[in-house]
Inverse folding.
């Protein structure tokens, strides 16, 4: 993975930079020793490691602003980091960049039940928001599998989803406002407790921007009252194609479950051995369908979904009888990623999104790719919205297997685009999918996205080397081509 060459003039001034930053963030706010920096050399994409120039741990917005302003004035790159759970290498450090760690921003600032929102700092964990409001019967809907560890600031950066995003939306659908700091130290606020704002949707622009446009220092999210009733169905099928057909049939019938997840046989077996959730082991694919709302509605929908599943060839069906059993159904799915670690020394967790009706085709093609590469794959994904999470199993101790796994993953993502999908649903582009961006966007598309980046960060100091396969200078993007001394479209007024 090619990353920008380190600026040796910055590396040579490491001690001088650290001394200045210690004045801004005193005490233990600057980490410089090689041993301590090993903690920060990677994020969730552990195949790639690079210690940062140094790690800086601010505690106040003013400190963030001063650090950013200093780095901007002195041409020092900044890589923002939340909890470091990114699976796309979004927080991969650079040798000539400070790693701006937001973990000390970990307070719930305010819970406003009247306006059904919570104001939190970016280092608060996803699950921490629900824990802060569940006493009054509320919760925060987006729930990534890593919710016990991932931070809300990182969720904003990657537009994270989760098992309940089918009905309740991704981070962007549950985000009301943010406070952020630009690379020059300017502090801005977009949105707030109100439901909408006039003008450009800059809040939407920041959501999923992967740390390329600014650093989030405060987040206002929507909280929801816990549904009156929630029950889950376990539906087993003799093939992944039949399970995929059931997903399409449920949605086409106008039913929007609270969550609808799918696992294939390798993932089922791994999760069951890990959690003992009671999953059937004699099926090739398993659907978990959760229905929530008023009890009468849930009872009706359970009958409807059960009938649809039977028509699609379900060979097993089990309905949760109490809250403990429902949570157990989900515990297996939530633990699927670590559970696969019991089957293989290493695995590569992918993320791509396809149209729901292409699910049977894509699963068939993935099996063919698995045979071609000689690598096993376990499939766990958000079936309702077509967000795939193939887990490619390999052994990094075998020469060439990591590269083979990456090639396999690249082919899966190309397939996603080929059938009308996209490169990522919630993990982000980072470094993992960076060089595949031309599979989805042409040069004009990518340059237009870069112009947005330049509007916020004209020196390209924020999280460089991520998302864009080729980083142009902002001046190059604005350059006008003059042919034989003549301007293009000379009749257009220019100012």
């Amino acid at each position: 993975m090619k990353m920008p060459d380190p600026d040796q003039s910055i590396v040579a001034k490491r001690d001088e930079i650290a001394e200045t930053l210690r004045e801004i963030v005193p005490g233990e706010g600057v980490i410089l020793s090689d041993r301590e920096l090993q903690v920060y050399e990677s994020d969730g994409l552990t195949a790639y490691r690079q210690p940062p120039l140094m790690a800086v741990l601010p505690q106040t917005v003013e400190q963030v602003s001063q650090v950013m302003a200093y780095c901007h004035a002195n041409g020092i790159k900044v890589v923002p980091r939340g909890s470091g759970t990114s699976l796309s290498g979004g927080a991969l450090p650079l040798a000539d960049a400070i790693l701006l760690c937001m973990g000390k921003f970990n307070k719930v600032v305010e819970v406003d039940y009247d306006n059904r929102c919570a104001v939190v700092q970016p280092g608060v964990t996803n699950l921490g928001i629900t824990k802060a409001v569940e006493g009054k019967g509320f919760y925060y809907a987006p729930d990534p599998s890593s919710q016990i560890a991932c931070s809300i600031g990182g969720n904003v950066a990657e537009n994270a989803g989760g098992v309940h995003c089918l009905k309740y939306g991704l981070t962007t659908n549950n985000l009301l406002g943010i406070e952020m700091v630009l690379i020059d130290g300017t502090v801005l606020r977009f949105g707030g407790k109100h439901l909408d704002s006039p003008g450009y949707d800059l809040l939407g622009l920041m959501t999923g921007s992967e740390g390329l446009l600014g650093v989030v220092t405060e987040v206002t999210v929507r909280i929801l009252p816990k549904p009156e009733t929630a029950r889950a169905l376990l539906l087993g099928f003799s093939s992944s194609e039949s399970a995929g057909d059931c997903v399409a049939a449920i949605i086409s019938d106008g039913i929007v479950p609270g969550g609808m997840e799918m696992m294939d046989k390798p993932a089922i077996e791994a999760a069951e051995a890990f959690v003992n959730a009671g999953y059937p082991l004699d099926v090739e694919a398993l659907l978990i369908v959760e229905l929530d709302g008023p009890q009468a509605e849930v009872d009706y929908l359970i009958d409807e979904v059960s009938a649809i599943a039977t028509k699609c060839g379900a060979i097993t069906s089990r309905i949760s009888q109490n809250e403990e059993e429902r949570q157990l159904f989900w515990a297996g799915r939530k633990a699927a990623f670590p559970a696969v670690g019991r089957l293989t020394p290493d695995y590569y967790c992918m993320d791509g999104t396809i149209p729901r009706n292409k699910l049977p085709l894509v699963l068939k093609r993935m099996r063919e790719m698995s045979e071609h590469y000689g690598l096993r794959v376990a499939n766990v994904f958000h079936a309702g919205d077509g967000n795939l999470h193939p887990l490619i199993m390999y052994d990094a101790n075998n020469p060439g297997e990591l590269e083979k796994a990456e090639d396999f993953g690249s082919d899966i993502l190309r397939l996603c685009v080929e059938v009308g999908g996209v490169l990522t649903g919630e993990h982000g582009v980072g470094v993992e999918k960076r060089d595949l961006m031309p599979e989805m966007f042409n040069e004009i598309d990518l340059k237009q996205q870069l112009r947005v980046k330049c509007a916020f960060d004209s020196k390209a100091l924020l999280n460089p080397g991520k998302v864009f396969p080729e980083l142009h200078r902002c001046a190059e993007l604005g350059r006008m081509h003059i042919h034989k001394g003549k301007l293009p479209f000379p009749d257009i007024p220019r100012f």
Observations:
- The longest strand covers residues 229-237.
- The chain has a mean pLDDT of 92.
- The first helix runs from residue 8 to 12.
- Residues 199 and 359 are 38 Å apart (CA to CA).
